[in-house]
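Go through this one:
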Amino acid sequence: MTSPRLSPGSADALLFDIGRVVIDIDFSKAIACWAGHAGCKPEAIVARFERGEAYRQHEVGKISDEAYFDTLRSALGIAISHDQFLEGWNAIFAGEMPDIAHLLPRAARHMPLYAFSNTNRPHVEYFSKEYAGVLGHFRELYLSSSIGLRKPDAEAFDHVVQAIGVPAERIVFFDDLAENVDGARARGLTAVHVTTPEDVGNALRALGI
């Protein structure tokens, strides 16, 4: 994937994905937690877990947490409680990404920062408390479970661009998933594919930040 051309003065706002851009994610922690409660091997759960339609419906707030965990209970073949599912579900957060704690306040001195994440109600409730400090640098969090739209859909990017209120091409978007980067570029945003912790810092330097 080609990198965008960035230069000082070429952006009016910065838009960040949260998972693996601001906060590190380790889904193996959820698998290990559920396997421990179920008394099975993690490999058995990994083989059955998929991000299917119920997962997507949960991310846009169309089904409840209980309903989603019911689908997981059936799909994974494990008889664990709602609270045990929730424990593993929120165990995935593995700390702030390297350097992000000093990059965000530096960037915020130059232009407004926003976040746009595909996520769900339990995760929002958890990371809003546990990572309040680093997330406090964003003027607004656009969360799929709140806005009812998710990346990489065109409607989702259009909604966020309109809410931010600057032209799409003046927004630099950071995301770790290629499909979301492609979706953002298709809607006119300047998008950076974050594959290493250094990618954010390099992009900010190119912007003169």
User: Anything to note?
Assistant: Residues 69 and 82 are 7 Å apart (CA to CA). The mean pLDDT is 97. The first helix runs from residue 28 to 38.
